[in-house]
Here is the input.
Amino acid sequence: MDKFLIEGGAALRGSVAASGAKNSALPALAACLLTSEPVTLGRIPRVKDIRTMQSLLAHMGASVEEYSPDITLVHANSLPRPEAPYDVVKTMRASSLVLGPLVARTGRARVSMPGGCAIGARPIDLHMRALEQLGARIEQSHGYVEAVAPEGLRGGQIHFDRITVTGTEDILMAAVLAKGETVITNAAREPEVVDLCDLLTKMGAKIGGAGTSRITVEGVEGLHAAEHQIIADRIEAGTLLLAGATTGGDLTVTQCVPEHLAALTAKLRQAGFEVTEPTPDSLRVRPQAKLRSVDMTTEEHPGFATDLQAQYMALMTQADGIAMVTETIFENRFMHVSELNRMNANIRIDGNRAIVAGPRPLTGAQTIASDLRASASLVIAALVADGETVIDRVYHMDRGYERIEQKLESVGARIRRIQ
Ligand code: EPU
Here is the structure.
């Protein structure tokens, strides 16, 4: 199993480019199932979760070709096996994104139920209920969700009890081929949802209200070929900015969308950094004043992303004062806390709050990554820790960060991948 060996103490300086968004590329690949014509997707990040989704589409019978490292062409001419087996779903929960497109295109889907995961229970009940409202019959047996709609789906009113990102995406992909109009309220407003709507629109879908909490879809008979460029990964960009900030360096992240990172940049400014936009698609962060603690609560977009909570906490270990970090999206997303404390951080958990007391000099240690974003937090902590840190189970990081060690090394980090 690969590990990272990081020697702390080097401030990150220079510029580094963001890759395409994993959480946008995943639904985009699933959307390719909606048409028998070829769909070309550019700026696909080379990360493990994307490989998994590509193999899942191939398993169903789609042809998946990579033209250059970041361009994938999917041609789902026919789908003889409209199912997502357990072996795939257990490694990547986003596999449930194929549920909506499969029922819409083939009238049936069989998708393994995701179990719990390191960050919480993560059920897909809201996806299933919404699909039922579009006329699908759903049964659960032997650990699988089986959905059928022999006569096709019909439009309906869908109100999500709570905001769900992949749930909104799943139902959008079902609704585009349903008969009549669908109105989705309390829809997710994440940039990845908007990106999916852009792709679906290029494929011929009729969608209104993308980026708001009320999305309308007028169903069409069929979708067609399209080409689409995936948006920048705001979570990767935010992770890099937080790494630069924590090390007290001067880092510019290029090829990103500053507007998608507004909640993070506001916190960074309050904490004592100067954050500028040297170009419309880049962000530069450098220290301006003494680093101070700033409370943060995760929220759905445009609030502070839960996917940056762990990395933000690493920054707060270096800030002067007490920072309350409140997690409202997932019930168990503090797995990084015990590892950060082993590196001499002073963080106490109280329910869904972490109380971070700083500044604390961190010390290198042997650590274990527990999930994707927790591993990013440990990397950031290791970059400022005294001495060497070993981070085990880097495969978590490889699920969602493209060549992260090369990117960090290019801006001055002392990081190596070891066996
Ligand atoms: N929820 C339910 N029932 C459902 C769906 C969700 O109770 O049917 C709950 C969840 O358990 C959670 C909350 O609703 O407490 C919000 O979950 P959401 O459905 O929005 O999460 P998701 O769609 O499964 C996506 C990202 C996550 C990101 C969350 C929140 C993808 C592929 N994944 O997950 O990304 O944390 O939205 O923004 O888009 C990551 O990249 O590290 C990651 C975990």
In short: The two ends are 6 Å apart (CA to CA). The chain has two domains: 3-19+232-418, 22-229. The chain has a mean pLDDT of 96.
